[in-house]
Amino acid sequence: MANAIKKVIPMLDRILIQRFEVKTTTAGGILLPEESVPKEMQGLVVAVGPGARNPAGAGHLSVAVKEGDRVLLPKYGGTKVDMDDKREYVLFRESDILAKLE
């Protein structure tokens, strides 16, 4: 466990998102195979980069989401990130996120 990841800090306008768990059982208790269950399109923002570089000068453009926000994600895309806690994390650019949920 010496190589365990303690903290992830995304670069520039990238955002690390934890996808919400998909229910794999029905109300009656029947187990569904993973292939038949669609991907969850919502997630929780875990970490946010400093923002894209400002083309007009020094500094970065601010990011529209912050840690703890719920967001709507596209069905496909993003970069899957494997961590030690067996949860599904995906790295997206800010422009790939569809909406912020309140």
Q: Top keywords for this entry?
A:
102 residues, 6-stranded antiparallel β-sheet, mainly beta, 10 Kd Chaperonin, Protein Cpn10, Chain O
Indicate the radius of gyration in whole angstroms: 16 Å
Average of the residue pLDDT scores = 83
Along the chain, the helix and strand elements come as EEEEEE
CATH class: Mainly Beta
User: Which term fits the overall shape?
Assistant: elongated
Description:
The protein has 102 residues and is mainly β. The protein has a single domain, classed as 10 Kd Chaperonin, Protein Cpn10, Chain O, CATH 2.30.33. Helices cover 0% and strands 26% of the residues. It has strands at residues 14-19, 42-48, 70-72, 79-81, 89-93, 99-101. A 6-stranded antiparallel beta sheet has the order 4-5-1-2-3-6, with no helix packed on it. The radius of gyration is 16 Å and the shape is elongated. It starts with 13 loop residues before the first strand and ends with a strand.
Task: Provide a concise account of the structure shown.
The protein has strands spanning 14-19, 42-48, 70-72, 79-81, 89-93, 99-101. With 102 residues, it is an all-beta fold.
Give a topology summary:
Blueprint: E1 14-19, E2 42-48, E3 70-72, E4 79-81, E5 89-93, E6 99-101
Antiparallel strand pairs: 1-2, 1-5, 2-3, 3-6, 4-5
GO molecular function, one term: protein folding chaperone
Keywords: Chaperone, Stress response
Family: Belongs to the GroES chaperonin family.
